Amino acid sequence: MSRNGLLIxxxxxxxxxxxxxxxxxxxxxxxxxxxxxxxxxxxxxxxSDKWEWNYIPIPTELCDLCSERVAKGxxxxxxxxxxxxxxxxxxxxxxxxxxxxxxKKVAMFIP
Amino acid sequence: MTGIHIAxxxxxxxxxxxxxxxxxQKDGCYTVRTCGWSPPGDHPVGCGMKLFIKxxxxxxxxxxxxxxxxxxxxxxxxxxxxxxxxxxxxxxxPMKRVGARGEDKWQRISWDEAWDIIVxxxxxxxxxxxxxxxxxxxxxxxxxxxxxxxxxxASLGTPNVCYPLSGWSCYGPRCAITxxxxxxxxxxxxxxxxxxxxxxxxxxKVPKYxxxxxxxxxxxxxxxxxxxxxxxxxxxxxxxxxxxxxxxxLGTRAxxxxxxxxxxxxxxxLGLLHVIINEDxxxxxxxxxxxxxFDELKVRVQEYPPEKVEEITWVKKEKIxxxxxxxxxxxxxxxxxxxxVDENPxxxxxxHSILAIIAITGNLDxxxxxxxxxxxxxxxxxxxxxxxELSEELWAKRIGAEAWPALSTALATTHPDETLDTLETGxxxxxxxxxxxxxxxxxxxxxxxxxxWYRALKTLEFNVVxxxxxxxxxxxxxxxxxxxxxxxxxxxxxxxxxxxxAIFVGAMNKALEVGExxxxxxxxIELGKRLNPEAWPWDNVxxxxxxxxxxxxxxxFNELREIGVYQPGYxxxxxxxxxxxxxxxxxxxxxxxxxELCSTLxxxxxxxxxPYYKEPHYSPMSTPELAxxxxxxxxxxxxxxxxxxxxxxxxxxxxxxxxxxxxxxxxDTAASLGIKEGDWVCMENMFGKAKEKAHLTPTIHPKxxxxxxxxxxxxxxxxxxxxxxxxxxxxxxxxxxxxxxxxGFGAPFKSxxxxxxxxx
Lengths: 111, 760
Known about the structure:
A: alpha+beta, Alpha-Beta Plaits, three-stranded antiparallel sheet, two-stranded antiparallel ribbon, about 30% helix, B: Rossmann fold, Dimethylsulfoxide Reductase, domain 2, Barwin-like endoglucanases, 3 domains, seven-stranded mixed sheet, six-stranded mixed barrel, 28 helices, globular, disordered N terminus
């Protein structure tokens, strides 16, 4: 059976923290711990007309891909609330195809 | 036809995007669908969400996927709403002060007692000093923006409603400029918000370019524009041009970045016009048919060749030429003008120039360009129009109205700077009573030199404050504190853009009750019934809203609840169809009936009719002597995801993400000053000083620093002199009073000078 994963399109992750808080609400995670945590790379100037500045949220041990929600036909809470609609959930093969189509600045996590 | 039939027809027209049931029972709890508007959260963005209530408590908030604009997405401010609603420090009962002002001594009272005290004091002050001695202060962007006008005009009966921000530097200037130049409601980029089927609507076109001019909507959701619509549009191929002194995150995704010197935007706009006009890249047909004063503008822009503009703005002349060509030749292009237009004494000329660029490149009122609201605000009747409750004689006493006609013609308020002068001098008459409606403006939010306002406001004899929490402003001045409910706790409506280009009207539904809070409209009605009952015939808010909604939308309040969101739809090219003018003739609702590239009214009011550049009052160029002491340019006010101005400082989840006020400084500048990442530093100039934590970043120019606003510390002592540490990081103390443009608009919140040094 296929595994499920979490796709992050970090071209469009705006660093809004909604995934962190939505996850904490859903999984009732205490302060100081996170089910998914935003990381930041940059900002720095790559060349005269290019900048690097990426946010990438990383799911942790506490992430169960919202199994209860998903069983009810809902999206994982982070995917549901992501302001940039930069997250996706599904079987890893499907997500891999989406990654290949997107072609850049995209990552997948299998927590 | 009954109201419900009309609602059903509308539902059919919009494809029943949201289901009829707005309240649902589920596993021992219930959910209520609603649209949000501060307090707490944001401008009238009206994000759709479901509130989960269990045992009388708000336990969870979920984004509503049926909402056509927010589509299930939700920001951290609403995701942490339960912490705000049930916060132990919230004030949920009326209180009266039992100590001296500034002492933290209060007593809980009943609403009846509160009304008795307020009515007696109001009548006494009116009798002794006249109704004009009462002043209502309103804050930025909160729901109260709909209600502080009727509170002042129809309930209290004063002509003085004040938005205290120096130069009215938020939204008002852009609305006024649009009134005078285009004769229309607010110009917003076309993000397909008017259509239930959004970007798929056959009428719609995705903009080729979106110019973000002094604006970062991802955090600010300005005026009701849903910020992350920009991401939707980028995914659909729109490219970004970022004009900003900081390279913000969107700037790193932009096709072009124009990192200009703060406060020099108008020179840049005139430089762009120079290229567009001289290279003959403008839309001849639109200019000939619909513009007035093109020849005069053409002469004026000759003074701004790209070489000269580069010297002023630091933007390379080649970039100016390239971007001007892109804007003029890529259709449609949408320019989104930001708060930087308002927070600039030269901002009227900037706004005028930006509207000129939009117009002469043929991007006005076209799909994917700039949408225009109608001249009259949607549902405006119960707001500014309630001034008809006042006699002409009383209305003429409005502070600053006569001296500042460009402001008082477009806006129904006092002149903010003139109001501070009146408080300080007692001229033309003394002010005696203040009503602070959702405004915490001694915190660095909507006032310049809040320390000066603080001293001046002490002269008021009697004050009422409405808010959710005890704030520095309430602690300093309230005699009576009236508790406000959050949007989860009352019925209401959300109107994006305050009705001046309404994308939609959303239903705000009461989901629970906390303590004895009363909403702005409940306060207006209950106070109005006691002081001016003829103006307030309604017995409950549902009837009030139904009476307001029916004439404009054809539905009552319950029908609005059932459709959830009402999108009025949109018609392009209104000027061709006679839809902008009261006489039904084609053209624009201006003096000449055209887009006024040369303004008839500016000239009438003693201002140059054409846009021009003026150097900031204080800058390394205009005040080189002072700049030796204060060598850095200070710009302020960029938003974060975790607060709406001074809101949310006491919310644990949000404070964990943003614990401290952050100032941004270039690593080279920081190194030369011995400042390291995370050091506390002081920014100081000839007017004031503020302490923030340094963040070193290459996204800011080495000669510029940026400071955050809205900071106070709910965890610090409440009583004077601390007032929750309000003077520690008060960046607005560095912004001078009454350094405004000739027409009364714009203050230098985004371009002042300062020095920076490390502190403990």
